[in-house]
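Checklist before submission:
- one chain only
- standard amino acids only
- sequence pasted in full

Submission:
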Amino acid sequence: MSKNWLLVGGILLGITNTVLAQHLQGIAMGNYSGTQALYHNPAFVADSRYSVYVNLVGSQLYTANSGVRYNAPYSFLGLITNQVSSEYRNDKGAVLFPRAYLKERLNGRDKWLNAGGDTRLPSIMFGLFKNKIGVGFSTRARYYVNASGITEPLSRLISKTTRLEELQGQHFDNQSGRLHVNALGELAMTVGGVVMDNETDFLKVGVTIKRLIGLYNAHVEINNSSYSIQPDPAWQNRRHMIVGDQIDVKYGITRDEAFQNIKPNVSWLLGNAPAGSGWGFDLGAVYEYRPDVHKYSYTEKGVRLKDASKNKYLYRVAVSLTDVGRVHFKNPTYLLQQEVVTSNKILRYDDFQKLKGSEGAFDAVNKAFGVSGSQAAHFYSVLPMAFQASVDYNVRPKVYVNALWVQNLIPQSAFGMKSESMLSVTPRYEHKWYEVSVPVSIMNRYSSPAIGLAGRAGPFWIGTDHITGLLNIGNPKSFNLYFGISAGLFRKPPDIGNKCWPPENSWLRRIFSRR
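Returned file contents:
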């Protein structure tokens, strides 16, 4: 892994007082989105413009927060593409990112963070019975960092460390917060079908069943604790240590072997060998109003049929409930957890250096709190359940405007992952071989306006829903970027012999009408 990507990960974790917008609204809401649309609504699998669609790979990275702004002299895009000038690198060429590049937003409120991404692995969807039934199989890996309810002084300590002079020498009471890190594997099957087609009114429904594999979890829950930041005599007072006067904390991890022992066979995926496992599902329905459906109809062998290659709606309304479920981390081979209520403990800089993996970090915290080993551990981590609704309006041929609403349904106090609540309006120009869209959103729990740009050309797609954040315009609080490679076989238009050919305005029809 490159040093730049390690730095990116460090920044995401360092903004812990801050969900890859999580939704890809710039690329996932069109009629040629294929499997990307299924993560919004499984009903999109039926009556697709593809007979077969394959996603080879896709990925996204995102972060959103409530407490700090990115204030570096180079853009986040420059950072992840390694285009930072030598002025901001050290002698070894590594990019410099001092904590001063995180500009604080102080208002006395608790802070939160959504960060992470997902990698969309090989997936396929196809139609049956003239696409009245659609079936999809998908795989992906998801990785989340969720922090919530973090009191402002504690969030400042996490993002700025003990070096922030404003925190030194002060005493802080009633400090609380929750941090959850999750990495999941997902295998999913989607089935959808048309349940109503009476010319102008069209309705399809779908369901996705997910097998969830808990690959990694780390969590910390701090309740009503108090501490101060004091000079450390062991460093001749040149560094500071955290003195915990009253500590009430629960923390746990999965061992690194949970990753090392992955065995992607049927018995491992469906059994209890992983660190965690579980099930989830999505439900969805899509209604289309088709007042001019006759324009897309033709007769073949005396039977009236519709042109399968064309979109037929004036507007489309979609609603769904996504990511219902949870992962049960229960394999004792990989789980470590402690719950500690203590007082007068000291956390020093030297205690947390040269740690060997996750288990080394766990042991270091144990040592600082005066405990050892692990308590019996098993815990559930919920999926980022959300309600989603969208309206797609056909303004003119190939021109659409989409409105999307996503509302997180998981309480901030819950153990696990939370979705990104947002509203967006996305105009797009859509062709089967290419597409351009400009999502305009209120992201970040309806607190941050954003504008993006996304496109598709042949099998390649790329976009961001927050281009100003990516380019470092206006000290942004959120970023996202997504890209991938996908392709499909389009459904066929009518044969030449059909009555809807040639079109009414074609030169060939005009020639024959003169005879």
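Reviewer check: Residues 231 and 240 are 4 Å apart (CA to CA).
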